[in-house]
Amino acid sequence: MSPRAAALLTAFGLAAWATPAGATWSLVAVDPATGEVGAAAATCGKMVWFIAEVVPGRGAVVAQADTLLDGRDLGAEGLAAGLTPGEILDELTDPAFDPAFETRQYGVAALSGEAAAFTGAEAEDVAISMGDGSLTVQGNLLIGAAVVEDSFAAFQDAEGLPMEERLMRGLEAGAAQGGDSRCPPERAAKSAFITVATEDGELRTWRDRGYGPPIEGLRAELNGSGCASAPGQGSGQWLWALAGLDVLRRRRRAA
For residue range 129-173, what is the model confidence (pLDDT) as tens digits? Predict the structure, then answer.
């Protein structure tokens, strides 16, 4: 079987099995000095990496709570077009685009303007966000506000370190506060990821492998003691899988 055919079969399987992440905490950040942009998240659900899009040289967006993948995609299109995070959120929360926008939570960071977040009135508590010009941290259905607060502080305290390390420390700090309220506090989540893009387009992703607490597994991958493929390798099949999911999603909307 060709890699493309295998990937498309994977996409059909994922469409039947995967559900978008609900309760989640995440970070999206940019570094104006280096041009790096990145996202990281964890949830007590499967395959949390589907909530994010990272656009090299532009920024990153996450769509969570009652995740709308079309919202994630629209956010990525806005980043690619050079819109500011505020302008992107205006589009995402336009009732003409999404009548159910009050059930959503978004975080957007971009090199084009101040990072921004949106938490809908119907997102499940604890649902909050906090940020500054280059970072926003958001979460919903959390054990407590300290998950977001400590994630934010840990990222800021790691200034000067590589983007992926700062994002990792943010996730670790949130997990130490119990993370997603649906998981036992000592586990905090069931899946986690980090994605960072350089200004020249190199995309690097780390994902936990699903064995044991995912934040610890993600740390092992980041430190090179796991079995992750090297940055920039092994991503082609996932790109085909995502493309297949997009086709399925669009067909369902047209039905």
Answer: 999 999 999 998 877 899 999 999 999 999 999 999 999 999 999
CA distance 255 to 250: 9
Instruction: Report the distance separating Cα 186 and Cα 65, nearest Å.
Output: 22
Q: Are 191 and 50 in contact (CB under 8 A)?
A: no
**Strand pairing category for 203-207 and 191-197:** antiparallel
The type of residue at 159 is E
Strand arrangement of the beta sheet that strand 24-31 belongs to: 128-131, 135-140, 24-31, 36-43, 191-197, 203-207
Confidence of residue 247 (pLDDT cuts 50, 70, 90): very low
**pTM of this prediction?**
0.81
DSSP one-letter string for the chain: --HHHHHHHHHHHHHHH-----SEEEEEEEETTTTEEEEEEEESSS-GGGGEEEETTTEEEEEEES--HHHHHHHHHHHHTT--HHHHHHHHT-TTT-TTGGGEEEEEEETTEEEEEEE-TTSPSS-EEEE-SSEEEEEESBS-THHHHHHHHHHHHTTTS-HHHHHHHHHHHHHHTT-BTTS-TTT--SEEEEEEE-TTS-EEEEE--SSS-HHHHHHHHHTT-S-PPPTTSS-HHHHHHHHHHHHHHHHHHH-
Mean of all residue pLDDT scores within the chain: 82
**Structural domains of the chain, with CATH:** 24-234 (3.60.20.10)
